[in-house]
Amino acid sequence: MTDDPILSVRNLKKHYPITEGILSKQVGAAKAVDGISFDIAEGETLGLVGESGCGKSTAASSIIRLEDATEGEVIFNGGGRRGRSRDENGDHPNDVTKFDDQELKAFRRDAQMIFQDPSSSLDPRMTVGSSVAEMLLVHGMTDKERRREIVEDLLERVGLEADYYDRYPHEFSGGQKQRIALARALVLNPEFIVADEPVSALDVSIRAEILSLLNDIQEEFGLSMLFISHDMSVVREVCDRVAVMYLGEIVEIGDTDEVFSNPQHPYTEALLSAIPTPDPSVDRENIELKGTVPSPIDPPSGCRFHTRCHRVIQSDEYDLEQAEWRALLTFRDKVQTGEVDPESIRDALSPEDADPSTVDDSTVKSQLRVEFDLPEQLSDTSAESTLAAALDALAESRTEDANEELSAFSTPCEETEPGETDHGNGHLSACLRNQSKVEGEPVPADD
User: Fold this and answer.
1) Beta bridge partners of 71
2) What is the dihedral of CA 381, 386, 390, 395, to 10 degrees?
3) What sign for the dihedral angle of Cα 368, 372, 376, 378?
4) pTM, 2 dp
5) Rounded Cα distance, 339 and 332, in Å
6) 250 forms bridges with which residues in the sheet?
7) pLDDT one-digit tens code per residue, 214-242
8) Angle, vertex CA 117, rays to CA 115 and CA 121, nearest 5
9) Most C-beta atoms within 10 A of its C-beta, which of 44, 125, 381, 443?
10) 102 and 121 in contact (C-beta within 8 Å)?
């Protein structure tokens, strides 16, 4: 294994413009991928994980150049490209984002993709053999018999029969279609593969077979792989390293065993807690992420996870139970966005055909506490006083006054964007709690 990684991604961004009006004036952008960086060594499998909508698949399509990136570099050192250096302008000759058509076609020989849904990635009007062999034809192999020979051999290598060559996609099961997709990805003998959720559409009984096949093929062909998944249990079995992605950013990256045994970001903790365990006697914390789910169109300031984080840092003025602090911030955010309507609560609580005004303020305030998991009395008297004043204002429909009261609750997590903290051996995380530990500042304990 050489020192240069086969793939080096630096500050990769993919923003989708939002336009309006007859002239399609851009008024914003959906930041699907917003500045991710990582390396993949030769023969290594890196897992890219996160919940749906975090930008994993967009990152994959930008890396493989199915979509043009908005910004950043994708340096691919495979296919005899090693040893090249940057030019006088600072551009790298191996930057995929700047490849012309000829270079891009050559890149396609060395890097391939396995898609999530094999049914939609196979042409129903072509036999599976023709679909796999088409790539050989595109890249200059005109000998039809030779193409068929190569494809039949690959079909057998992925666990199918050679005579399946002349069958059509609808004649195969989901697992068989994914094997065909794997054969198509391998037909040009690439060095690097992007596997985008390759088993998520398959039955559990079939997943293990496909994952075992991927592992065998990787060892046989010496492949490097970017493995994208939302299933942490699958990633643990397949990947050498793992990168955790949230709302377009990588929040933690490191060796798989290290990240799973010693997660350093609260989001990683939450993902790991969601892994099912077959042993009902195992006692573990199941982390429920409460709060406001942000949008990539308008990501929150500071740490993007702070609107849902169960470990969000408290301000110095208060000393609350962590669950109370999370509930307070969620309540504040909902009030600020106008999602809390006391009048609708009165309507819901009033008897049928009765005047909603008969529901008194104390009932409305009590119901608001119940809806937002706020206890009858906060553990910090100062915070309770502020909350009570905000509830009084809401009950009297003085929303601006309530917002002013609730603005007293703030967290460093929404004010400061976290930098990377190095935990050793390439294990990095982006969380203010970890930065505070490194810098020797006190971090509020989780009660």
Assistant:
1) 13
2) 30
3) negative
4) 0.89
5) 10
6) 245
7) 888 888 888 999 999 988 988 998 999 99
8) 70
9) 44
10) no
